[in-house]
Every structure is written in structure tokens, then in C-alpha cells.
Design goal:
InterPro entries: DUF1329. It is a single chain. The chain is of the alpha+beta class. Helices cover about 15% and strands about 30% of the residues. It has six helices and 22 strands. Strands 6, 7, 9, 10, 11, 12, 13, 14, 15, 16, 17, 20, 21 and 22 form a 14-stranded antiparallel β-sheet that branches. A two-stranded antiparallel sheet has the order 1-2.
Length: about 475
């Protein structure tokens, strides 16, 4: 009898293995078809290769975007293959209703409410691609990338890649945005956060800073995300001016599997590092008169746990694209950042297909913007537009992400962005290079101590700040 029982038990794992194998084989044709789609019907990241019905959005073609001879430090627009493009038409308060079907509610409100605001619309250039290793990793992710059991955290994936090129829900789409390929690090030197004056005042908020954003999972090649640790990103920053802030510095880390951030801040007057316990979500960033929340950085940055994310389909919208004017580092900053809006000459709009993601705050959870809408570019998963509603359901903030092809990476990214507060009549402009004298720099491979995770600790922040 014991031998028979033992035999039955030994057969059970074999039966389970066979069942698992049969199930796996049954899914192989679908995965194979999906992988084929990414080389035929869809772009390598899941966008539609075909043109739209009237051809105003052309078919996608993998094309090199920079002209020969470009290197970092040279103006990006001057080296772009379509630099000679001219506007097709402009949209302002006089004709906005004519183009309403191709504008978001936030854009319409911004145009109607802001005197002199104008959008110059250019030919559509589908300039976004990814390197071959990212495309290959994206194909490997089919059936491999997974969300955690809580429904919002990320469990595992092959990286760097697009995790869910055919997303089943809004959470997967937002992870595509958060984990898009943007190199291993981005560096900002002498950059400037600008907030326009209060109504009736002429006093800008203007903070200059140096900052590096490091993505520990994003070096060239292929690896399991679970082998790289639990950090999605690390950030280090230090203020250069005004004098009252010079020397203040911080490090912030966020995660793929837990909410919130780990943030430490150095105060030179006290020669102390303090942990900031709630520096996430809608917590106001220090020194910006409640105009700038933590999760508004670069259109959206932060954990996904406080919202339900609905994938509401696709739309054809006029969105910021190939917006090199935000990276005109040799320009005049205050000619670019005008009193009520970014100079129209430094903004460029094109017609593109975007994924629409509707975010609604979960029951029992609070957020200053309980309803939000995000618009993600189908060719890169960058957030190019977002809208926030306040607690009364009123349209409150409109954000634009100034997407450009990043020549040194072979992909596109949004770092520079603006946010218009429709209630206060103010706007902010951050992570740009406009008028700073130095371009933003993207790194395909780690270089130096800031591109190692052990740099981003309270102990190291104290050590490097006190030198």
C-alpha cells in the first residue's frame, strides 16, 4: 500500500508537467503570431505601421533621424533631417472650434482661456524607433512580462524593452510609459525650473540645478528585470542658484514593486541629511508655491497604486512632437519662456495616434487630482499630453511633453515639459535645455559614479555634499 501511494504521488508531478506543456504549446501559436505582428502589422513597440485613412499620418518607416556629423553639444534641430519643415497652419482662439476633433479638452480650454496662445501645426514625422536590442527584447516579453498579484506593481520582464506592446489594460500601458527605453541615464547641467509670475506680479520662480536620472536596468543587452533589483530609477540633484538654495541637494529612488519613494535631502546650513517621508504622489515640491507636485514630473512619474487605469482606446490628436525648440540651449530663456506660455516658435505640433488612458482615484484613497487623462504616443509610449481635474471635477491642469528623437540613443524621449494651471493662470517649464547654455545629455551606457546604485544613499549624499 505505501508503495502504491508513493507511485501515485510520483505520477502527479509528471501529469502536471504534461498539462503545463500542453497549455504552453497551445499558447505558442498566439505568441508567434504576436511576435510576427511586431515585424509586419505593428511597429517594433506596438504602434500601427499603416498610415491613417486620409494619409495625414504617414506609414511608419524605420529611418535615421540625424544628419551626418552630429555629436553631443551641437544644436539638435540643425542636425535633424526635417529641419526645413514649415507650419501647415496655426490654431488659436479664432479657429479652435474648427479643429476641436483633433484637440484634447485641455488643449481647447488652454487656447480659449489664454490670450495670444497659438499652436503651429507641422507635417507629421513619425521619427520614433528603438535600437535592435530593444525591439528583440520586446518580442521576448510576449507572455513573459507580468504585473504583480496586486494588479499595479511590476513583477518581471525582459529589459530594456516595451513590456506590453499589445497592452490589455491601462496599467500595462502606463508601465510601458514608465519603462520606455531612454538610455541608462539622463544628465541636466545648469538646467532651470521656471514658474511664471502670479497674476499682477512680474516675479518668476527660477531655480537652476544639476541633475542626473539613472535607470539601473536599462544598459544595452538583455536581462531579467528581477535580476537588476527593485529600483525603477534613481535621481540626484543639487541646486546651483538662487543663493538661498545653492548647495541644497537630494537623492530620490523609486521602485517597481512598492509605492512611494525613498528620498533624502541635504541642508547645507545644518550640514545634515534628512529623510523626506512623504515626497511622492501629490506632495508639493519644495519652493514652488504649490504649482508643482511630485508625480507631475515629466508629465507623470510615480507609483500606480492610487488610481484605476482604464485603456480608453486610441485617438488622432495634435500633440507636441519633434519639439526641438525646448532644447534650444543657445537661445534666450526668457524669450522662449514668455509670461503666459512657451513661445509658439519653440513648440511644434503634429497629428499622431495616441493611446488614451483614463485614471480615476481608487475608493478610500486621496489625491488632489482624482481624475486624470494621459495621452501616450503609439510609436514610443512617451506621455505627450495629460489633463488633471480637481476635486470638484473641473479641468485644472494641462501638461505637454516635448518629445524629440534622441540621436545618441536611436529612440525618442520626453524630458522637457510644461504644465498650465488653468485655475491660477500660471505655468511651469522644467527639464528643458532652452536658454541654459548646455544641452541635455542621454547615456546609452553607464559612465562615472552617478550611474551606480550605491551612489544614491543618505550616507553618500552627506559625503559628496560636505566636500
Amino acid at each position: 500500500m505505501p508503495r502504491i501511494l508513493s507511485t501515485r504521488l510520483s505520477l502527479r508531478p509528471a501529469a502536471l508537467a504534461i498539462a503545463s506543456l500542453v497549455s504552453g504549446l497551445a499558447s505558442l501559436p498566439l505568441q508567434a503570431q504576436n511576435a510576427e505582428d511586431l515585424t509586419t502589422r505593428l511597429t517594433p513597440v506596438g504602434g500601427e505601421r499603416a498610415a491613417n485613412k486620409d494619409g495625414s499620418i504617414p506609414a511608419w518607416q524605420p529611418e535615421k533621424q540625424d544628419l551626418p556629423g552630429w555629436s553631443w553639444g551641437k544644436p539638435r534641430l540643425e542636425s535633424w533631417k526635417h529641419k526645413a519643415d514649415k507650419p501647415l497652419y496655426s490654431i488659436d482662439a479664432s479657429n479652435v472650434d474648427q479643429y476641436a476633433s483633433r484637440l484634447s479638452p485641455g488643449q481647447i480650454a488652454l487656447i480659449k482661456q489664454t490670450k495670444g496662445y497659438r499652436m503651429d501645426v507641422y507635417p507629421t514625422r513619425r521619427s520614433c524607433n528603438v535600437p535592435d536590442f530593444v525591439a528583440e527584447n520586446t518580442r521576448k516579453n510576449l507572455g513573459v512580462a507580468k504585473l504583480a498579484a496586486n494588479g499595479w506593481a511590476l513583477q518581471d520582464a525582459v529589459v530594456p524593452s516595451v513590456l506590453f506592446p499589445m497592452p490589455a489594460n491601462g496599467t500595462e500601458a502606463m508601465w510601458n510609459m514608465a519603462m520606455r527605453y531612454r538610455g541608462v541615464a539622463t544628465e541636466f547641467k545648469n538646467s532651470a525650473t521656471l514658474v511664471s509670475p502670479r497674476k499682477g506680479s512680474t516675479d518668476w520662480i527660477s531655480y537652476r540645478y544639476d541633475q542626473t536620472i539613472f535607470l539601473p536596468w536599462a544598459a544595452k543587452g538583455a536581462r531579467k528585470l528581477s535580476d537588476t533589483g527593485t529600483n525603477r530609477s534613481h535621481t540626484t540633484f543639487g541646486y546651483v542658484s538662487p543663493p538661498a538654495l545653492a548647495g541644497q541637494a537630494g537623492v530620490i529612488s523609486d521602485f517597481i514593486d512598492q509605492a512611494g519613494t525613498e528620498a533624502h535631502y541635504y541642508f547645507p546650513g545644518q550640514r545634515r541629511v534628512r529623510r523626506l517621508p512623504s515626497y511622492a504622489y501629490d506632495a508639493p515640491q519644495l519652493g514652488f508655491e504649490n504649482q508643482y507636485a511630485m508625480d507631475e514630473v515629466q508629465v507623470f512619474q510615480g507609483a500606480l497604486d492610487r488610481f484605476d487605469w482604464k485603456l480608453a482606446g486610441k485617438k488622432e490628436l495634435l500633440v507636441p512632437y519633434n519639439a526641438f525648440g525646448a532644447f534650444d540651449f543657445a537661445g534666450n530663456m526668457m524669450e522662449i519662456a514668455q509670461n503666459d506660455f512657451i513661445n509658439p516658435k519653440n513648440r511644434r505640433y503634429e497629428l499622431h495616434r495616441v493611446w488614451v488612458i483614463e485614471a480615476t482615484v481608487k475608493a478610500g484613497v486621496r489625491h488632489l487630482a482624482p481624475k486624470r487623462t494621459f495621452y501616450l504616443d503609439e510609436d514610443s509610449w512617451n506621455a505627450v499630453l495629460a489633463e488633471d481635474h480637481d476635486g470638484q471635477g473641473k479641468l485644472w491642469k494641462v501638461r505637454e511633453g516635448y518629445l524629440i528623437p534622441v540621436f545618441e540613443l536611436g529612440s525618442c524621449d520626453v524630458v522637457a515639459f510644461s504644465q498650465y494651471n488653468l485655475t491660477d493662470g500660471r505655468y511651469l517649464f522644467d527639464f528643458h535645455a532652452a536658454g541654459t547654455g548646455t544641452d541635455v545629455r542621454w547615456f546609452p551606457e553607464p559612465v562615472g559614479p552617478k550611474m551606480k546604485s550605491n551612489f544614491y544613499t543618505a550616507e553618500n549624499l552627506r559625503a559628496v555634499s560636505e566636500r
